[in-house]
Design brief:
five-stranded mixed β-sheet, globular
Amino acid sequence: MSSPHARAGGDDDRTRAEALFVRALDMSAGDRARLLDRECPDAALRAEVEALLDAEASGGEWLAGVAARAGSLLEGDDGQASDDSGSMAGRVAGPYRIDRLLGRGGMGEVYLGHDPRLDRPVALKFLPPHMHLDPRAGERFREEARAASALEHPNVGTVYDIGEAEDGRVFIAMAYYDGETLRERLVRGALPADEARDIATQLARGLGAAHAAGIVHRDLKPGNVIFTRDGLAKIVDFGIAKISGQALTRTGSTLGTIAYMSPEQTEGDEVDARSDLWSLGVVLYEMLLGRRPFGGTDDRAMVVAIRHSDVRDIDDLGARGGDLSSVVLRCLEKDADDRYPDAGSLIADLESGAAPPEPARARRGWIGVAAAIVGAAAIGLATIIGSWNGNPVDGPGAASRTSVETPRPALPRVAVLPFSHDAGDPELGIFADGVTDRILHRLERLDGVEIVVSGSVAEAAAVGLGELARVVGVSAVVTGSVGGADGDREARVRIVDPSSGEEVGNSVYSDGSGTLDEFESEVAGLLTRALDLPDPSPARGPVVDREAQTLVFRARYLWSGRTRDGFTEAETLLRRALEIDAEYAEAWSALGDVYVSMTSYGMLTPEVGFPRAQEAVERALALDPELVEAHTTLGDLMMDYYWDFDAAEEHFQAALEAAPGYVVARYWYAQLLAHQARFEEARVQSRRAQELDPLNTLAVADEGRAYYQERDFERALEVFEQVNARAPNFVAGLYSALSLVALGEHQAAITAFRRFRGSFSRAPEWALVTIPLMRLGLEDEARRELEQAEAAAESGAVPEMVLVAAYAAVGETDAAFDWLERAVAARNWQVSFLATEPLFDPLRGDPRFDAILEEVGFSIRLRDWSRRHASER
């Protein structure tokens, strides 16, 4: 079959074909045929028009190649890459360089491009020239961008930007994912049930995010699902999405791909979220059996089967999918009222592995037979975006996007205490820390248990194990000690029931009698047997060389001291460890952390240090894709230094998937969500961190900071004051002062700034005291503070963003933008706060501010949000 844009006989014929395509686009099949009979006496011309109509009817499956390897999906049936005649390759569109054509279809062309500002590849989707003849198509295209850019979820493909090329063609800039599509994966055959369940759950989460934002995809299929290198499934191409309250296509039109359409969609009826869940049921069926649930010799026969026929091969489905068969059948109910009511309900059944309960309503035919296993599930919302009605998130009192985690099953919680050692032997101290970390990370990978390690554990355990059980809610405690000389070290571990103090398991490691890897596996087995859990899987990866392991333990110890000499020595030790064992993932991860710290302390420039850090942690993840610290470090790098917020979220999610109790990842993930104006989601993460670490006030302060960034200053201040009364920390100290500024309580704010400076004397954010001083008319004192801060910023002692906020607050806008441009050029990590931080409200609405938000990479939705929050103070 030829390309949709294979020429029918010169430019005139191509133009005529495109004009006929536009006229036929929304006609019925009969009217189309009559139009083509009348207007296409030339068979080649008719073939060209029908090819365009076929591409449109396919719902744009070619677009999945945006996220696939260049050209892998975008070949015709003859295996030849898409025709590049008339290509825009070599031109420039907005800030993007256009490199080469990836593919064409009825709804657009996609090119591989390059964003020189962030040095990253992008996929650029252009409205095809003939679409300019149809104003509705242009509006549909723009709505695709608005709809997709509103969605910020790890299972939804990212849209960066919308713009217009010099020739007037509108384009969308999207993330380019170098992976394969689900369609490509299914070419190799059906998937195991566990893999199908995982993919379906990810897709349901992505759909849930879209539905909560008022968007129905309407074309979910394997060609519109792409896998990243980390195995994350992403839904792409919202080109025919239905946006709540929008009417982009006439009633009676049937955009979509027929094989995956719901019955109501084939009728051209109004569709809602339940139509997407039907499509997901088709996809899940196809993953399990390698074929679709409804057949037909042509499109008309397939539509009849979708509307009236039973799901075929139910016995095969049950044998292959087990409990998933009931989930598929529930999704594929003919009546939308009998399907899952929402994605959260579907996710609950996918995750529980249980058959849905019997529905209340009786069914006819085969549906009656299936009634015993198909029914209504308890509603359990995944981490999805709440009701948004298609508009940017507004401030307090407005409808905001919310996030509610799926109700978690009650898992036994286990506390891991630091191993004790002889305080007079620093080498044993290093060994004790290293063994504690190794045991912790091995246990974090256990299924069916939640691991807790934090200041809360140590603080509660100091009072007694009974107090630990009460405060932290743990079912078991892993504790131990180390001893011996460096040449013959020994580690003993005990597993204790904290309510009774009874030992329920123990093990001993000695340098001469085994490896730490074997010791960790033994401890994991002891713990699972004590908690009556399934035996753990064997330890992953090769056995680590003892000398290399010791070098990493020592390097981590030096790094944690946060000194320049310590960083330098740690780098040397880690390089030695990698010379011994270049496949040692933990060594690469530790080296990445060292480079981040060396850059943060000014020992390396950002353009040198951060790429080194990224390379190191990516090497670590290539060796161990579930290494929690590496994912967390890379997430932080992506958020604060590369401003790739989608990638940051993927890594934080991956860290928390591997280790839900890793509180550090939750801190940073909460911060990322708040930067994205996803405030309730940020608070969900902060509250979860508090559950895991009840005595850790930083998690509480992070919840308050989300209220502050949402501009609920009174509630934020209440939270910060609670923290300051219990155990003051940096976040609560600074943001209580800033909340008082926002509330107009300037004298109280000055007092709070002074208290903050007394507790954190080296904190450069003290310079923000300029703001309340100026507001109270104390201009001379404010100027002195501002001059001192500027001098310190010139030497690097004060971050540029502090000067941006200070100058913005006192009305010196040009100076603020000068410092903001310097901050962006220096890749100041506080730039990631730019979209939602109230301190920058006086700059919002200025075209320079919008341009910088776009340059940094904030989404269209966030840029709109920023403009809506221009300062009224």
